[in-house]
Design goal:
Elements: H1 5-11, H2 19-33, H3 39-46, H4 50-59, H5 69-77
Helix pairs in contact: 1-2, 2-3, 3-4
Length: 78
Amino acid sequence: MESSPLKEIASGLPFFKKVNEQEKLLGVVGAQVLRQVSLSKVAEIMGMGKEAFIELLDAMRVEFSYLEEGDVETKVKW
């Protein structure tokens, strides 16, 4: 049985022991970065609290923000 490229990538992640959990993590992080799902939904999908998922993102060195450049400039002007 051949392993898919996604399974190979997922199995190399040091997070979670089961490949299906590793694959799910790849999917939700991608959706999060692409702003397709909320942080709350991603944490729910992974069966984690939001704070725990944020810590996981930090451990993976994944940076994300829902703020647009204009939002940041507006906030700085406050």
